[in-house]
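Hmm, how's this folded?
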Amino acid sequence: MAETKKNYYEILGVDKGATEEQIKSAYRKLAKQYHPDLHPGDAQAAEKFKQINEANEVLSDKQKRAAYDYELEHPGMGGMGGFEGGFGDFSDIFSSIFGGGFGGFGGGARTAQSSVGDDIQREMTLSFMDAAKGCTKTFSYMRNEPCASCKGTGARGGTAYSTCSRCNGKGVVQTVQSTMFGRTIRQSVCPDCGGTGRVITDKCPDCRGKGSVRKETTVTINIPAGVDTNSYMKKKGYGQAAPNGGQPGDLIIVFKVEPHKIFVRNGFDLQVDLPISFKTAALGGTVKVPAIDDTFDFTIPEGTQNGQVFTIRGKGIRSARGTTGNLMLRVQVEVPTKLSRDQKRAIEQMDGSIDLRQYEKMKKYSDNVESFYGKKPY
């Protein structure tokens, strides 16, 4: 700081560790006490009011307060004299202390930087099997593509430009404003070069200085196995062109997977509703079961119940990481309809030969009903 250091904490009457609310409260109390309207013609009160506002402007702003605290702890670092005459040198303070990342409190970058183009999002519909097994797709879309003639710069041959004389290639300009509290320096984007730091001297004839051309772009993407609805892939640099030769945006492809007639997907697991006859459920048997690549034989054990689920490991969808989900078979025992008279008679004879104790669920249900009501349901 300068030779006469102001302690803004003492001016507001708060400790160095005061909270934002404590600083705000102290400022309001003092500003009301020393307001010029209450002390007409009092030069000392006017000066005190000025110091109170100056202290509040620093301590109520996190960035300004951080720089001020740093100077209090590290006197003699230079550049801090700005506190005595306002806050115009804060951008240089932060540049030297914190690496220049703040770019000044007035906003705007300290140096010209290349911009980045917008991303483009497109939806792609995949069949169930294409998503499960992986595939290659080629598709076209419209975008602002970087001009090949000028490499996106907008200048003929990519070189017909010069350093902006107004900002000296920095892309920003400073404006100085004097107030009753001192001098304020603010940064803003250079109006002559638009923040690029350079001025085109000869426009590219192909894009007319825009740096991009509207055209159809065709891309081929290799879709890995296991993608699902709302999963996405990103193709870097295939989005909208950036102005001034900056980095193009990305193409983001969001997938929508069509349903399947047999499989229901849950992550990398597959579920199949497997209908079987009541004979197969009772006596057991072998049925053909579908998988991703082919069918295989599966043995249904005798006494299989409706809704029972069999899990077959490693028969689901293979992920990009190399792991494979499982296949779940949910049994649906189907009861035949429109039976003939002879078929009905045969079923009745069969059922009559089976004791109720052979039906586990019916037996339990019958016992429960009888215990409550004293009557058998069957």
In short: The chain has three domains: 8-98, 120-257, 263-371. Confidence is low (pLDDT under 50) at residues 76-111. The two ends are 99 Å apart (CA to CA).
